[in-house]
Structure formats: structure tokens, C-alpha cells
Write a structure and sequence with these properties.
This protein has 4 helices and 6 strands; from the N terminus they run H-H-E-E-H-E-E-E-E-H. It is of the alpha+beta class. It has one domain. The strands form 2 sheets. It has a 4-stranded antiparallel beta sheet with strand order 3-4-5-6, sandwiched between helices. A two-stranded antiparallel ribbon has the order 1-2. A hairpin with a 5-residue loop joins strand 1 and strand 2. The radius of gyration is 31 Å and the shape is rod-shaped. The termini are far apart.
Length: 218
């Protein structure tokens, strides 16, 4: 039995021209796409990371607000001012146990709030990526998926300020140092956030020994 010869397919000159144009257009499209990706990717990463940091800062603010609203008089909860019979301040004591619990609970709350944005979509207008002021915030949105994780370290510090004759302002400052890891497709970065809140303040009437003014850690 004779094997049939496979007929070779021939293309007309017109078909060859169309195929060449289609191939050239495909190559050009891929080159333009790669160029646009290389140009826009850093801006997308930067804007997405900035949005992620804003989310983390919002989580910190809401956590501190909830903390302050959950206490009545926070200063009285944490600090005891002792005076002698003459009304002179003899000591200022802080409740170490309550302070440590406050710091631990606040740190967990912040981490929990940040974890709520673990997977988050950020919509970035195309016009914002062009660098042209008139186009900023305009055009269709590009959806960027962000994975956000982080942790926070909380600490309390004390400051004493003179408020006049025999009057001293005692402030308790809450210092928060948070680190967030922002993960995007083919890109990740770590950002640090440091912020400070005045969570308690009182005016101490009477002479305050000089060594209290040097107290900066609870």
C-alpha cells in the first residue's frame, strides 16, 4: 500500500503579508506592554504601599481611641500621687501591672486591627500613574491586591513640665512603634510607623522634687 504524500500548504502573497502584519502587531503589543509595566510598576508599588501604611495608621488610631474610651480616669487608674501632711509631693507611683497589661492589650488590638486588612484591594486611577497633575485621580481604576501584616510595640513615658509657681504638669505619653510588611505581586516592602499619644495628664499642685523631672520611663 502506497503512503500518500502530505501536501504542502502554500500561502498566497496576500496571506503572507497579513500574517506578517499580525505577527508584527503582536510583537509590538508585547513590547509596549512590557515597557508600560516597567514604567508603571514602581509607581503602583509606591502608591499601594502608601495606602497600606495609611491603613495601618488608621488601625493604630482606632485602637488608641477605643482604649481611651474604655477607661474612666486613666491617670487615676495608673498613677498615685502621695503627699505628706504639709501637702508636699513625696512620691509618684505607677501601677506597673496595669501599665504592662495596657501595653500588651493595646499591642494585640493593633495587630488584630491590621490583620483585618490582611488581604485588601487598592484601586488606583490610571491618571494618577501618569505623573500629570491634571490627570491625577482620573481614568479607570487598576485593582491592586495587597497582603498586609504587622506588629506593634507599645511603651509609656512620663514628662514633667512647669505650669507656674508650685504647679507641675505630669503627662503620660504612649509611644507606639509599628512595623508593617506590605506584599504585592512580585514585590514586598517593610515600613516603620512611629507615633505618640498623650493618654493621661494632670496638674500636680505643690513642690515636686527635682528627680521626678528626670523620670522618663514608667
Amino acid at each position: 500500500m502506497k503512503r500518500q504524500k502530505r501536501r504542502k500548504r502554500y500561502y498566497t502573497p496576500r496571506q503572507k503579508r497579513l500574517m506578517f502584519r499580525a505577527f508584527s502587531a503582536s510583537v509590538l503589543f508585547i513590547i509596549l506592554l512590557l515597557f508600560a509595566d516597567a514604567k508603571l510598576r514602581p509607581q503602583i508599588n509606591s502608591l499601594a504601599a502608601s495606602r497600606a501604611v495609611a491603613l495601618a495608621e488608621s488601625a493604630i488610631d482606632s485602637s488608641v481611641t477605643d482604649l481611651l474610651s474604655s477607661y474612666g480616669k486613666l491617670y487615676d487608674e495608673l498613677v498615685t500621687v502621695e503627699k505628706n501632711n504639709e501637702g508636699q509631693v513625696t512620691s509618684i507611683k505607677t501601677d506597673a501591672l496595669k501599665i504592662n497589661l495596657l501595653k500588651a492589650n493595646l499591642g494585640k488590638t493593633i495587630e488584630s486591627r491590621i490583620s483585618e486588612f490582611r488581604r485588601y484591594d487598592v484601586k488606583i486611577p490610571v491618571g494618577s500613574l501618569t505623573g500629570i497633575y491634571l490627570l491625577y485621580g482620573r481614568g479607570p481604576n487598576i485593582n491592586v491586591k495587597i497582603t498586609l501584616t504587622g506588629y506593634a510595640v507599645c511603651d509609656l513615658s512620663n514628662s514633667f513640665l512647669s505650669a507656674g509657681i508650685n504647679q507641675t504638669i505630669h503627662r503620660m505619653m504612649l509611644n507606639i512603634d509599628a512595623t508593617v510588611c506590605v506584599v504585592l505581586p512580585d514585590y514586598s516592602t517593610t515600613r516603620s510607623i512611629s507615633t505618640q499619644f498623650c493618654i493621661a495628664e494632670t496638674v500636680i499642685v505643690g513642690y515636686v522634687p527635682d528627680f521626678y523631672a528626670n523620670l522618663d520611663k514608667s
